[in-house]
Structure formats: structure tokens, C-alpha cells
Amino acid sequence: MSEKMGRLVLYSGCSGVGKGTILKELMKRDDSIRLSVSDTTRAPRPGEVDGVDYNFVSKEQFEKVIAENGYLEYAKYCDNYYGTPIDQVNDMLTQGYNVVLEIEVQGGLQIMENFPNILSIFVLPPSLEVLGERLRGRGTEDEAAIKKRLREAEHEMKYKDRYKHVVVNDKLEDAIEEIQGIIANER
Description:
It is built from seven helices and nine strands; from the N terminus they run βαβββαββαβαβααβα. The chain is of the alpha/beta class. β5 (71-77) and β6 form a beta hairpin.
């Protein structure tokens, strides 16, 4: 890769806004972009691969890394830990890769607190109505779960102005190109 240090990119947005779809396409188009893989103490779900979806670790291993200040951020959710390992991120950055931290808003605010100059991007839906249509279109959740996600999205969107860049995912291709441009210009 390059002799130049990579850039740390904080990437957040509401559930169902298309973050994962955008990120997969960005990584196909730009081999300088890498996704940070989080550690978790939860059990793998069917189809998940250790080291790809998450690094699946024991509670003892996770707490040892906490004690050694080895996470950029971590949180406990539903009795399981989730965290971003510092060593993994630093390795990729020193190799010149731009490392994307796809993190929910709570963790994102924690990261921005510790790294005020981080390149931060928040992805918004065109509207809550469109987000609701997208969530319903997935066909994976009942109406009560969708309404809960929409309430959470409305809450998360209140923090969008804390991020350096806000991108509206109205047309997928436009959102991909806008984020690709942001990362390229910030390097």
C-alpha cells in the first residue's frame, strides 16, 4: 500500500438507511478502504464468520482487553460486549488504508469525544416515510419492530449535526459517489 498514513472514518446512520449496501460498494470500488471488524462476546449467528462479521471472543478475553485499554470504544448491549480493537485499526492505518468504523450513534459520539478530528459521516434517509417503506420492503420484521426502528431513527437523526458530513441516501449511486468523494478529498 502507500507510505502515507490512512484515515480513520466514522460511519453512522439509521437502521435500514443503506449503510451496509453503500459500504460494500465503496470497498469494491476503492481498495484503500477497509472495514474495522469489532470484537463481541455474543455467539455467532448462522452464517456469520469469525474475523469477517465479528471477532468472537470470550467475556474474559474482552475484559482483559478493556483492562489493557485496547478498545477505541466499547459498549455492553443485551449482556454482550461489542468493541473496536485499537491494534487492528492501527495496523491498517499504518499500512495506508482508510479504516471505516461502522458504529451506531452512541458509539460514534464516544469516538468523536476521543478523536475530535476524525472524518465523520452520517447517512440519512430522504425522510422517515421513505425509511419506513424501505424497512417494510425488507419483509424481515413485523410492524411493531418497524415502528420501534423508526422511533430509534428519529432519535439518532438528532445527532446528525455532530458529524462533519451528512449524506442523504435518496439515490444509492449518488450516495456512494458522494461518500467516495468525501473520503478521497479528506485524505
